[in-house]
Amino acid sequence: MISNKTLSKLRKVLDPGRIKTDAISRSAHSFDGYVVEGVPDAVVFPTKTEEVSKIMEIASMDRVPVTARGAGTNLSGGSIPLKGGLVLCLTQMNKIVEIAPADRYAIVEPGVVNADLQQALSPLNFFFPPDPSSYSVSTIGGNIAEDAGGPRCLKYGVTHDYILGLEVVLSSGKIIRLGSRNVKDVTGYRPAGLFCGSEGTLGIVTEATLKIVPMPKARRTAMICYADLDDTAKTVVSVIGVGIIPAAMELMDNTVINLIEDAMQIGLPRDVEGILLVDVDGAEESVDKELAQIVEFARANNAKEIKVANTSAESDALWKGRRSVYGVLNRLSPTTIVEDATVPVSKIPAMIRGCRGIAHKHSITLSILGHAGDGNLHPCINTDTRDKSEAHRVEEAIKEIFQLAIDLGGCLSGEHGIGLAKSPFLPMGMDTDSREFLSIIKKAIDPCNILNPGKFA
Ligand SMILES: Cc1cc2nc3c(=O)[nH]c(=O)nc-3n(C[C@H](O)[C@H](O)[C@H](O)COP(=O)(O)OP(=O)(O)OC[C@H]3O[C@@H](n4cnc5c(N)ncnc54)[C@H](O)[C@@H]3O)c2cc1C
Fold first, then answer.
1. Whether residue 247 sits in one domain with residue 195
2. Do 237 and 146 reside in the same domain of the chain?
3. pTM for the whole thing?
4. One domain, residues 295 and 385
5. If you take atom 15 of ligand 1, which residue's CA is the nearest one?
6. Is any atom of ligand 1 closer than 6 Å to the C-beta of 132?
7. pLDDT tens for residues 259-308?
8. Are 185 and 261 part of one and the same domain?
9. Total domains present in the chain
10. What are the pLDDT digits (tens) for 174-193?
11. Centre of ligand 1 from the C-alpha of residue 235, in Å
């Protein structure tokens, strides 16, 4: 429990209206997209780096746990203040500080919403490639701390590929600046990268210098439908295997297709077993050629129907369905668990077959979607955590799904992070010495373990 003494110190550095201790504010910051909750003692809303620094100085002196928070859309429990203490909510630090197209960078505060950055870049014909499906609400700080991916990360890479520099407040309150504004910079180690994917366990990102990319001249979208999910998966392997890298290649199974159609009526065929949603982008002359090659592979893998979007409105409608998936899955049951097991692309068919077998064995409801082009699958489980017997079967199934991913040469998370959800499985994916190395880093940077304690590090 946070002491009155700590609270009065905080009131000296932060406008009292930016320190919330009422039950509603605490409860509103006690959960994210995972199934566990943890109520903080107080929520603070700094507006500048110096305030973050002073908050951390006080927290460090008084040994108060601090959990950074953006939009709270994390799916692995990383934003849950498991040990109480302070939630440090960065949504009020939401300024786009500078956009420099000629130098290919944008400087932003951590609370900038991904979509707002995209909107600011669009008239300049630039974009920021990481596009998590939560992009309309999730923050750049959260994207960095989770090393977020998204559909078009297949071609363009994930968040860590776009970090040029970071300003970080350490647990002691010290402010450090890592990297620079240069797209090439090999000054010493690359410590900015260490904070990318660190899930708020090493420092608070208070400003980021991001690499931005010129918008491709042309884009085409195709929806490819299959009577067999295995054929859907095999097409992904064929396309990537010959060196065609679409901008995005998303897979959805029959359950997901029907849920989207129930909710949105966008004309998806209800009777197919799998859909691939494919985007290609680049020069006008190359996109049609690339799409034609993909269509050829789709036909060779028994595609039943292929629809190419003729207008950007048609393409946006197809993507709207895909981007709404988590919302529509929530209509199926009180609890939706979105897993994040990732395998090498060639193992996607085996992974999908294996997940379905595991679901059948444990009698649970599982659907499959994911950024198939980079092997990042999201087996989704619909359940009700109040049903203890089912909850136990779900737990067993999840364990088996991750073991399967590891056995196939995959990993525990492609983009949602380890958080609370996957901490127990860490020994499956990392040996003792390698886990010890993570602990050494954590102890060196946050010696009192006040930053997001109880999580993976
Ligand atoms: C509908 C839906 C779709 C999603 N789709 C995708 C997807 O396609 N790809 C993907 O990668 N993820 C996806 N996610 C997961 C989630 O949106 C991302 O991880 C996102 O990056 C989290 O951003 P946030 O602002 O919500 O961060 P939060 O959830 O608030 O925080 C996430 C983690 O970052 C830490 N953190 C937040 N801000 C800072 C900061 N400034 N400094 C240090 N640490 C910080 C927190 O402590 C926490 O550990 C999805 C989630 C939902 C609900």
1. no
2. no
3. 0.96
4. no
5. 74
6. yes
7. 999 999 988 999 999 999 999 999 999 999 999 999 999 999 999 999 99
8. no
9. 4
10. 999 999 999 999 998 989 99
11. 30
